[in-house]
Amino acid sequence: MTSDTPPIAAQGVATLPDEAWAQARHRTEIIGPLAALEVVGHEAADEAAQALGLSRRQVYVLIRRARQGTGLVTDLTPGRSGGGKGKGRLPEPVERIIRELLQKRFLTKQKRSLAAFHREVAQACKRGLGSSGTKNQRKA
């Protein structure tokens, strides 16, 4: 690797903290037997929810993930939110384009329609980002 090559960011299960692994193992011990059942009743789901400190709905989500997964502990690792309060969900270049166009075109006395603004953002992302920005831009 040359010195001008950007470093590869470590991602995935290899970087999971020990606490996340422990939580995934605990979830697997409880959810695994339930996922093997054809039908999981409310009582069993409620017991699992109590043991895991989750809601019944979250238990059913974990059961679905276990059934659709590969059968590994990593199927039930806690998810990480990519966004949330105070954090953006879009890549920074897309955020920059949207901010710029908001100021120039939308936050004016003569506002464009939301549809026209959306089209302009999509076109700017295609021009400025190539193919990588269009997928993420649709979530805006």
TrEMBL record:
Q: Region Disordered: start and end of each range?
A: 72-92
Out of the domains of life, which is the source? Answer: Bacteria
The record lists the organism as: Pseudomonas putida (strain DOT-T1E)
Which keywords are on file for this protein? Plasmid
Q: What is this protein called?
A: Transposase
